[in-house]
Design brief:
Number of strands: 12
Strand content: 25-35%
Number of helices: 5
Largest sheet: 6 strands, mixed
Order of helices and strands: HEEHEEEEEHEEEHEHE
CATH class of the largest domain: Mainly Beta
Radius of gyration: 28 Å
Helix content: 25-40%
Structural class: alpha+beta
CATH architecture of the largest domain: Sandwich
Amino acid sequence: MEVCPLCKQIFYGTRNYLAEDLIKTIWNLNIPLQASFSQHERKDKRAISHPKFCPGTFPCVFKSCTKEQPAAHVLTHLRYHHPTILRKVPSTHKFKEKWELEYLPDCNYPAAIYIPNMGLFYLVVNVNCDGHLDAIAQMVASDEVASTFKYKVTVSDISDRKMFTHSSKVSSCRESTEWIQEVNGLRLTLTAMEMLSMCKKYGENFHCKLSLKREDTEEEI
């Protein structure tokens, strides 16, 4: 409104109270919206954040494979040479998966999990000739980067009634499993007696569940 309907004078240098009230109202509505968008943006940034680039070469998870190559090439190697062990999942802050495995002596069960915004992880379950089991999660990254992730591995009978659980920081796949077996706290270790308390004999199946998450997240693993 440019002219007063009563005196017909032009509004010049006067305050528009209606406009001011509308601006205040919009501003008050905008503050919580901005906060909401900021929180959403922070979540999105965390969702698309990628681990730090790690130079050097990394070994394949397969025992019989001696291939070592840069991190960027490991995924391609797995896709072409070991596709049956590779599992790709959508971007997430947490990962959970359960496998059904057969309890046999001198047997190795490797798995590779690729999570786009987290990285490439290995789960290695090994049963030696005496029936002892070792399970560990490793990452195709330096130990500095791998240690920013936490894992939990659970081995249970097929009915999930009896179980053994271990949680720890993820280690780099550059660390040999022979060295890791000598270090307490990095892996789940079960004796043959503990395994036979779940699997009554060789050839029976058991469950192995892996959970992964970022160390700096508050969610339960």
